[in-house]
Structures are given as structure tokens and as C-alpha cells.
Amino acid sequence: MPEEKTPNGKNGKSAGLVERLKAGVKEDLESLKTDLPAKAKEQVEILKKPTKTQVYTSIFRHKHDDTPRNRALGVLSNVFLHLHPAKINRDAVRYSYTWGMGGITFYLFIVLTLTGVMLMFYYHPSKVQAFRDVLYLEHDVPFGKLLRNMHRWAAHLMVIAVELHMFRVFLTGSYKKPREFNWNVGVILLVLTLLLSFTGYLLPDDQLGFWAVTVGTNMARATPLLGHEGPFGQQLGMTPYNDVRFGLLGGSIVDANALLRSYIWHCIGIPIIASIFMVLHFWRVRKDGGISGPAPVVLDSEVKEAKK
Amino acid sequence: MDWKQLWEILSAPDNVPIIAMIPLLAFYIYLAWKQAHANDVLIEQLAGDAALAKTHHRKAWPFKAGWAKEVHVWPFLLRIEFLAAIIVTIILMVWSITLNAPLEEPANPNLTMNPAKAPWYFLGLQEMLVYFDPWIAGVVMPTLIIFGLMVIPYIDTNPLGAGYYTWKQRKFAIGTFLFGFIILWVSMIFIGTFIRGPGWQWFWPGQTWDHNRLIYEVNRDLPDIFGITSNLGKGIFGAVVVGGFFAIGGMLVHAFFRRHNARDFKRMSLLQYSIMMTFFLTMLGLPIKMLLRLLFHIKYVWITPWFNV
Lengths: 308, 309
Fold this sequence. Notes:
The complex is a heterodimer. By secondary structure, chain A is mostly helical.
């Protein structure tokens, strides 16, 4: 094999590598001493202004100085708040006009969803387990009793809030043109609220719920045409085993199937349906021109009759 | 006076919402009435003063030139919403710490609860079971209530009173709604909760619930009073009476409505007017049927082989 004479000969090559390595390490150490403290200083300066960081600006798309523009953007560029307009009539924020009942209803729905999901972790919708689960929840689960209490009382409060909301909307004539359709959506939501509460009544599987649901669903026996005790029910071939009550309960008596059905309606079915209608309801509030008032009063003499 | 009994009913955890609802309702009726009155006074003032009507900002609330007509949602609305959420949370927390949700014995189909009551918001319908057969009280009435509520925006042709509280501009609409909501819904819930005891019998507040009490009450049917015995006769008689109620009642309401709501009457189409009449008369039929039962012990008015009213 011929000897290689290049400067990077066999020996020279390795010697150069070691030297370069040494020089490189020295440079790195030097950099640690000078660059890192500089970067650290820079970092401290950046952290002093967290709103300028990339993470922050990627989450919040607008500046935070107290300017009218930023106040508007704070509402408009936030998915949870953009339900609101940027500005509203100065009188529309008056509590005495709206009573805040619609918002409170929605807030209670959120509370009920949160407490409800937590309750679901401890509950089996079966005849063997259900009542014991409630006992377990009341006596052994940390804050279990508080959880159940909050769920129950929030449900009652929600029914009251919904009724008061409807009362206010009626008294202020807020169902009138162009809000007729949204009033109807609201009526459906009222019914769904009552059904949500009613389906939850059976779930503890105690005497109270059992008999309340028995009384409630017994009325379904008497449904005209579709119930076996209702008018024209028998003529149409309705029996306790094929009528509308059977469909509701999944049987001819309130038993395991009824428990499961009311559980599924309560936790999945009706909440999904209600959520869809709620989206529609809120969206229509905005599309129909926002909150209805307080509007300027109109005099009887100013009403223009539509030509027929 | 059985104070213990009274306390047991009043303090039953599930009855607390109803007790809470009474002062709440009273407060909000007062709040609405106060604003309605202020607006009515303003309307009267503006109606009598054309010059003022042109310049006034037309709200009972103060407004001065130079004030911004609109305010930012953040912070002026959102802070209220945030506060409301906190207050509701506190109320809920205190309520949940101090009062336990009811839990009875495990469900037992062999041991009937007496009285067996529906959840409180359905007690109005359960109370109706005293006066009507289940197919009316439990199925037809809820359906009518839902549809009755839904048609309201389409039969109320009065353009006045949209977006502000008023009484004088909407007497008929508000009066009807108050009658339906307060008398037929809330007070029936109240009776169902606090008055009805074992066997769904009437017990005054403070009266001891007697599980063995028997009431000797002879309920008759309206055709019996007139000595009608044949099934065909009963069916025809009942149809005539019920039809008569709608015809004569309809005439009376028509006579009233035409005079006192002349402009509404003129605005309404035949369909709107007949839907309004049907729901209004059906609603009026409720207390009439109740009075027939309570005062004259009349059970059914219309008897047929298929259904009884």
C-alpha cells in the first residue's frame, strides 16, 4: 500500500481532529459563559411582559390596553363571549328589565351538567345498584352529599328560573314580531327542562321517585288512540304491552328497563336535544335583533294599520 | 291546629322550591307592575302632549343629551353576568349545605305511597285529575298548554307593548296570561302540594292528615240530574251542553272582545280569531268544571261509551 503524503495523513488526520475538538469545546465553554447569561437576561426581560410572548399572543388575538377597540375585541374574538354584541343599549343592562332569568337558566344548566357528570361516576342505572349507589354517594363519597344536593336544588331552581324567564318575556311583549319563532323555541326548551327534571326523579330508585313516575306515566295509559285505557285505544288494539306507556317505560311496569330508559334520556338524549335548541335559541336572540328592550314606548295613535 | 303536620309539609325539602317561588313571584310581579305603571303614566302624558312626544326619549328611565346611547358589553354587561353567576352559586351552595335532597325507602311496588305525588311542577296537572279523566288531565291538557303557548305570538296581533312593560296597552293579553299562569298553574301547584293529603283529599293547612278519613260524597253526572238514562240521550245531551258552552261562551267573549279590543278584532284573521277563541274558552272551561264539581258534585257533563268529559 502506498504511503499517503497528504497533510491530512493518517496521523495528521487524527491529530487535526483532536485539536479541532479541543478548540470546539473551548469555544462551547466560552459560549456558555457569555451567551447564556445574556440570553437569561433577555429571558427575564421577556417574562416581565408575559402578554408579549408568543404563547400569549397565540391564545389572545388582541391587545389588552384599555381602548374601546380592545373592549369590543375582548367580546367579539372570544368564542364564549361572542354570543354578545360588542355594544348594547345603555338601558338593556338594567336588571329590572330582564331579571337575568334566561342567563341564570343557562348557568344552572351548566352547573347541572358538571355535577351530573360527576354523579355519573358513582351511579349504575340498574335495579340492584342504583339505590345503593345513592346511599354510597351520601355516606362515603367525599362531598358526595353536597354533589347530589347541588344537582337536585339546581334542577328545581332551573324550573323556577325558566318559568320566570317566560313570565318576563311575556310581560314585556318580547315574543312579538320578529321574535315569534324564538318564543316557540323557548316553549320547547321549557318542556325539555321539565322532562329533564322528571326523568331524573326516578334515578335514585326510591319510593318518592318510583311513585312520582308511576303516577306520571300512568297518565300515558289514557292517551287518546295510543294508550290502552284512553279513548279509542282499545278499538285500535292497544294493550298494556304495546301502547305508548310501554314504549316510555320499556315494560308494563316501572322497573329495570324504565330505570335504564330514564337514565339514558336524562343523561344523553334530552341534554343533547336541549343543547341543540339552546344554540338555536341564543343564535336567534341575536339574529332577531338582540334583546327586545327596554324599547321606547309606542303610542296607540302611532300604530299604522297594515293594508288588507 | 296541627302545627307538627303543618311544619312537616312546609319543611319537606322538595316543597322548599315552592315556598321560595311564592315570594319570588310576588317580587317579580311587583317589579313588573312598577315599571308597567311608570310606562303607562308616560304613555298617557305623551299621548296628551304631541310636542313632548316628538322630543322625549320615550322611556321612563332618565336620559340626558350627551349620554352615550350604547355601552360596551365588556365590562358593563359581563360584570353583571359574572356577579349573577357568583350569587347563584352562593345560593346553591348554602342551600345544598343546609338542606338535604330527599331520599325515601328503596322503591317498593308493593307499598303504595299515600299520597303519591308527582314532582311539584306537575302537581297542577295531577290536581286536574280530580276534575277530569286522565286522558284530559294528563295528555290533552299538557298538549293544549304547549300549543296554546306556541300560538301566542301568532294570535296576538297587538303591535303595542313590544319591548317594554305596560298594562294599559295590553290588558287582555296580560290578564289572560296572568289568569293562566297564576290561577291555573301556580295556585294549582300550591293546592297539590300543601292542601292535598292521603287519598288526594282536601286537608286545610294545619289539619291532621287522617289516613282513614272517608268522605261520603255522592257525585252525580249532569244528565242524571235531568233524568236522562239512555246512553244515546246522554251522549247527545253532553254534546249539546259542551257545544252550548262553546257557542254561548264564544258569543259572550265575542261581544266583549269586539267592543273592548276593537282594533285587535279588526286586525285578526278568521283563523287567528277562532284559534284564540278555542284556547280562551277551553281555559275558561277549566275553573267552570272545577266549580261544578266542588259546588254541585257533578262529575261528568258528557258521557259516551268511549270517553267522558
